[in-house]
């Protein structure tokens, strides 16, 4: 796996396929490999070169010696784009990753030609703040939830009602959640709470990059109304809301998500 050294960090990344680059930006604590099952095959089949990477704090990048900010994560993304793309490229973000992309669009608008923002926010409301505080408290307590219990909680948080009602699919998800239940929060701790942002919608009104904003109808982590607010404040942004999807909508119904992304990307004509 290639490594980019930037901003005092080592940033591990991976490339797939050939063609114009698309950089994928994950959510809190997630490694770049989460895109491999569904989005990487769809985008490489559409003729793109896909670049995935691991945020600072996620193995194998090591743990930063100091607390870091959204600006730091946006600077990491900027360095990666400059490294892998000769000009403005396409970027896909999810959850915290989408917020990082938005901050990059404000700070370095010339780096991105098109952006897809999934399950994003432009402000943290009460529930987002409470959720972040609870996650930080759990992490700092040193407690480790039994994997089966953690799987049950994740299923309720991240999956749609449609998936929860499908016993065969649900059992598969529960097995995945149980196998991947976190026992070491050292790396992800630095990312916890970064989604608790002040109201950034006024700043996002200056974004001129073509954006597709995707909300998930059953998302209990980032409710669709918060996602829609982002689309409403970015001039010219398109908004689509996918039914039957929880927070992990890009994994629950990847065909719908991938189709929306590929169709949106096809409309970009470089000047």
Automatic annotation (TrEMBL):
Any keyword Oxidoreductase?
Answer: yes
Give the matching Pfam families. Answer: Abhydrolase_6
Record keywords: Oxidoreductase, Peroxidase
Per its UniProt entry, which superkingdom is the organism in?
Bacteria
The protein's Enzyme Commission number: 1.11.1.18
GO molecular function ontology, one term from the record: bromide peroxidase activity
Q: Which residues form the AB hydrolase-1 domain?
A: 22-259
Q: What is this protein called?
A: Non-heme bromoperoxidase BpoC
- Organism of origin is Streptomyces rimosus subsp. rimosus
The lineage, from the top, is:
Bacteria, Bacillati, Actinomycetota, Actinomycetes, Kitasatosporales
């Amino acid at each position: 796996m290639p490594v980019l050294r930037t901003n005092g960090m080592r940033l591990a990344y991976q490339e797939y396929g050939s063609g114009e680059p698309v950089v994928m930006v994950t959510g809190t604590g997630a490694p770049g490999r989460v895109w491999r099952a569904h989005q990487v095959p769809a985008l490489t089949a559409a003729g793109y070169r896909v670049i995935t990477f691991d945020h600072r704090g996620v193995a194998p990048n090591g743990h930063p010696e100091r607390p870091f900010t959204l600006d730091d994560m946006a600077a990491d993304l900027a360095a990666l784009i400059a490294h892998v793309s000769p000009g403005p490229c396409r970027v896909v973000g999810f959850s915290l990753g989408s917020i990082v992309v938005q901050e990059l669009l404000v700070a370095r608008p010339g780096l991105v030609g098109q952006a897809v923002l999934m399950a994003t926010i432009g402000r943290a409301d009460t529930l987002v703040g409470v959720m972040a505080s609870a996650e930080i408290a759990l992490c700092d307590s040193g407690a480790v939830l039994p994997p089966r219990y953690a799987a049950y909680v994740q299923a309720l948080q991240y999956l749609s009602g449609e998936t929860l009602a499908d016993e065969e699919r649900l059992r598969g998800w529960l097995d995945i959640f149980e196998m991947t239940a976190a026992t070491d929060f050292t790396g992800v701790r630095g990312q916890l709470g970064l989604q608790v942002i002040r109201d950034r919608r006024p700043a996002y009104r200056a974004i001129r990059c073509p954006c597709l904003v995707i909300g998930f109808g059953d998302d209990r982590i980032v409710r669709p109304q918060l996602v829609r607010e982002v689309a409403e404040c970015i001039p010219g942004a398109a908004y689509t809301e996918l039914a039957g999807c929880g927070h992990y909508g890009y994994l629950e119904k990847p065909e719908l998500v991938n189709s929306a992304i590929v169709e949106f990307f096809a409309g970009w004509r470089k000047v």
